[in-house]
Specification:
Helix 5 crosses helix 8, helix 6 crosses helix 8 and helix 7 crosses helix 8. The strands form three sheets. The chain has a six-stranded antiparallel β-sheet. A five-stranded mixed β-sheet has the order 10-11-12-13-14, sandwiched between helices. Helix content is 40%, strand content 18%. By secondary structure, it is an alpha+beta fold. The chain is globular. The relative contact order is 0.13. The protein is built from 14 helices and 14 strands. A hairpin with a 2-residue loop joins strand 12 and strand 13.
């Protein structure tokens, strides 16, 4: 099999992630191409699309949430993702086996489910949510009325996993706030869930994240036994420099590994950093250790320099001034620093248009 170097994998993945060049795709087209965007927090997808699309503005996504053409729902790896309405209906049935297992694997709640008919819990939750959208705080006491001897939090956790629940606006509308309020996907979108096709979804994964191994696919999706699914697909094979087999679409592009990669500000929880078992294509082992040692598994915004994870960023607001602080993991060239500062000013213009003063600051590299 042909061998792909780390840099070849890096440039191929960045191109498919729309990070080598900003794309002219619409927000919905981009979200579908990326097979969703991780979205535990309300606003990271806005930054993720800004990094990938030409002239993206917050209202471009906010309006799509309001008209229900995109939704926020628990999907891959049991985490909230922003997806198109169409993908919501196809992806949720695909990942349901993972979410079913998650109910019983959860160490905090699983003891509450002994002897409990979870199908009845799901049916009761659906009935309550079809009456009207409700927050978890509203749902818990209503479920507890029927099962007073069970933890209300555990009952709501079961409903979250067993039912396809979307978080409805104003949650995640740019410039607004609000706790998650849930409705079933079928009610919110007015359509039933679709029959899942895991093979088709894996082909789309490769178009956005490939070339990749079966272990990478399982890391991204949370599903197991995907080798059996992959065996039925028309794919070409490579190996990486460590001998691992990588799979790819027959006609997927493999760009020149020497292509320049401009500095990029990735959103918190960006899927580029979470969707491979072997992440050396975008980060060194040292950088991975530093990133994933953050408290409470809350991943910050990160920076790419020459296509690789190079540090973190955050925006702070005080007295009318918005300051973007960049914290590199190691020293960078003056040319890279200048390019990062220039891109940082564009980020501030997007994120903080009303701030009277804007500043970009790069801290000294720390180890």
């Amino acid at each position: 099999m042909p061998v792909l170097t780390q840099r070849q994998l890096n440039r191929a993945t960045l191109q498919r992630q729309l990070l080598l060049h900003r794309s002219e795709k619409s927000p919905i087209e981009a979200v579908e191409h990326l097979v969703g965007m991780q979205a535990q927090a309300p606003f990271p997808p806005y930054f993720g699309l800004w990094s990938r699309l030409i002239d993206f503005q917050p209202d471009d996504l906010a309006q799509r949430l309001l008209d229900r053409s995109v939704v926020r729902i628990v999907l891959m790896r049991g985490t909230v993702h922003l997806v198109s309405a169409e993908d919501c209906l196809h992806l949720r049935p695909m990942v349901q086996p993972f979410l079913d297992r998650n109910v019983h694997a959860n160490t905090q709640h699983r003891g509450e489910f002994a002897g409990l008919d979870l199908a009845e819990v799901a049916a009761a939750g659906r009935e309550l949510l079809d009456e009207q959208p409700r927050s978890a705080a509203q749902l818990r006491p209503l479920l507890a009325e029927r099962w007073p001897d069970r933890s209300p939090a555990a009952l709501a956790f079961a409903v979250r996993n067993l039912l396809p629940l979307v978080q409805i606006p104003p949650r995640a509308i740019w410039g607004r706030s609000g706790q998650p309020v849930y409705a079933t996907a079928e009610t919110w979108l007015g359509r039933p869930l679709a029959e899942p096709s895991t093979g088709e979804v894996l082909l789309r994964y490769l178009a956005a994240f490939g070339p990749a191994s079966v272990a990478d696919m399982q890391t991204w999706s949370g599903l197991t036994r995907l080798k059996e699914v992959v065996a039925g697909l028309d794919l070409r094979s490579f190996r990486d420099e460590n001998g691992r087999e990588l799979l790819d679409l027959p006609d997927a592009p493999l760009p020149d590994p020497d292509l320049p990669s401009p500095p990029r500000f990735l959103a918190p929880f960006d899927n580029l950093l979470l969707s491979h078992q072997d992440r050396t294509r975008v980060m060194s082992p040292e950088a991975r250790k530093r990133l994933f040692s953050v408290k409470n598994a809350v991943l910050p915004g990160t920076i790419l320099v020459d296509g690789f994870l190079h540090g973190t960023w955050q925006v702070e607001r005080q007295n009318g001034t918005a300051t973007l602080t960049i914290s590199p993991y190691q020293e960078m060239s003056e040319e890279d620093a200048d390019a990062l500062i220039e891109e940082g000013h564009r980020l501030l213009a997007f994120a903080e248009p009303d701030s009277a003063e804007k500043a970009v600051h790069i801290t000294e590299a720390s180890r």
